[in-house]
Every structure is written in C-alpha cells, then in structure tokens.
Amino acid sequence: MSIIEKYPSIFGVGGGCGKELPFVTLTGKAEKIAREEGEARNLMEPTVVKNLRKLLMLSIDCRVPLEKVELIGNELGLPHDFKKSLIFKYPEYFSIKVINGRAYLSLENCDSLLAVTAREERFARERMLQSAGGQNKVRITKDGNYLGPFAFKMCYAAGFRPNKSYLEELEKWHKMEFPSPYLNARRFEVADPKTRKRVVAVLHELLSLTMEKRMISAKLDAFHSEYRLPSKLVLCLIKHHGIFYITNKGARSTVFLKEAYDGTNLVDKCPILMFNDKFVALSGRNETSSVDMGADNCKVFDVDGENQVVKLSHVSAETEEGFLVRLPPSLTSNIEEVYC
Questions:
Q1: Transmembrane segments in this chain: where (predicted)?
Q2: Percent of the chain scored above 70 by pLDDT?
Q3: I want to staple 188 with a disulfide (CB 3.0 to 4.6 A). Which of 128, 195, 280, 320 is the partner?
Q4: CB 199, CB 236: distance < 8 Å
Q5: Could you tell me the sign of the dihedral formed by the alpha carbons of 220, 224, 225, 229, in that order?
C-alpha cells in the first residue's frame, strides 16, 4: 500500500465503503500512457529482431545459450514472452536447438548486409559530412579523435590531457586495420595486435546493440566463450577509457559506451525508452536512460595517459575529485596482454 500511496499520479484507490472491497486503478494520465506500450513494442520489433540476429552473428557458432539471451533480454528490449512472440514468429531467422542437454538460440541464416557495425556506420556518416564541408586533411585531433575506416570515437574525461607521444601511439592504433567483429574469432591468433583491436570492436558492437548502450559488466562477461572476450575484461575496458566508461555502484559495475551519451543523457532513444520515460516522468523521478553522475557511491575509472596510472574518482556535476592508484608491475603487464 505504501508503494501505491507514494505515486498518486500513477495509482488511484477506490471502493472501501461498506462491504465494497478497496481496489487500485491507474489514473487517467497513467492509463493513457499505458495504452502506448503496445505501439512502442510494435515500432521496436523490426529493430529488436535485427539486433538479435546481429547478436547471434557476432558469436563463434552463430548460436548463444538461451539462458544468456534471457539474461540480457531487458537490455535488448526483448518482450518477456520473446520465445513465443519473436522466436517462433520468425522461423526463417531463429530456432531453438538442444545441444548436449543445453538449449541454444541459433541463427538459421546469416545476412551479409547486417554485418556492418555501428562504428562503421558512424564513419560513413562522418566521411559524408567531411566531404560536404570540403575538408580533405585527416589527422588526429587533440582530443584523440581520428577520421579513418578503422578508428574509434574517443570521448575522454574533461580533465584528461593526452601528451604528444600518447597521441602519436593512439594515431597508430587508430590506423591499424583489424578483422570485422562479424568474422569467426577462431580464424585469428589471440596475440595478434589486430585481433586485440578486433575484441575492442566486439565489445563496442555488443553495447551498441543494447537499448541504452550499456550493460552490467557481469552480464557482459557472461558471454566470454561465445565472443572470445578477454579473461581480464575490466582491465581491457580501463585501457580503452576513451571508448568505455565504467561505474561501480554498490556491488555492481556497469559499462557504458561513451559516444552514445551527451553528458549524462543518452543521445538516441528507442520507442520503448521514450515510453518508459513518460511513466518515470509521471512519477517525478529522473529519466531511466540517464547516468547518475552525482551519487556518492558512483566511482569512475579513468586512466592518466601521461603518468601511466589508473584514476579512481568520485564524480559530481560540478567537480571531479579523486585519487591516483599506481598500478603494480603485475597489473600493468596484464593490461598489455588483455586484447588491447
């Protein structure tokens, strides 16, 4: 009852007079928003189906254990009954197969037209804008960004100042070719620098397939064998702090795709998130797809490129205060080894 009373803009209580039992209803505004859920789901279905196909295409054998798909169902925007409403609805794309007593969601056919990453799509857009603006020179900028077919968007923390040598090494990394994340990982040597860069692209694409471009690190790590992710996943993410953002809130850490956010807010919202935001706004809370940067227990890992240290800082909207944690040699060497 306390929950119902806490949100009078969403719930209303009627009855309770005489022998009539009390009952709970949605308010007029809440009921109007609730009717929009079906439309939001219908609008999202083509995108959800496409992203689910891409998720399977990224895996080694184009199949993922069914319980792992269910694990990230909310992140992908899957309906609760997706096995009935999506899997069986699209038999030309999906099937459930039992292998060694374990149920797998399998891809029935691979479409090469889907084997284009979000990073590649962004590069195509930026190249068109550059051509339209008459800019032909390509060089790395002071913020670490470089326009090239194998480059990643960098979004460093405001206080991060890369020096000249850091930018030179970063430009080399931007220019280095690497295999597509949609090619089978078994074809590549783990120690090859190009393979290590490919793993960064796999992580980037996995986050791009989620609605909010973020995922709890434990869920991301659950796909270690399907996508050949590094054994020391957090270290890999820390090294590429211009691409990924890691928060620790309580016992859970969450990985964000930095380029998907403008400050603390998600740039592009799908119909389901916009529907959720309407309900959240009605309750008086913040939007669901914003990052809580001001919480005292929100810790952010960043790397000081000039001093080769990891910075663990508490972040607020006004100031950034923290302390530097110097890495022991064993951890530093591990960072160089984890597919980076």
A1: none
A2: 79
A3: 195
A4: yes
A5: positive
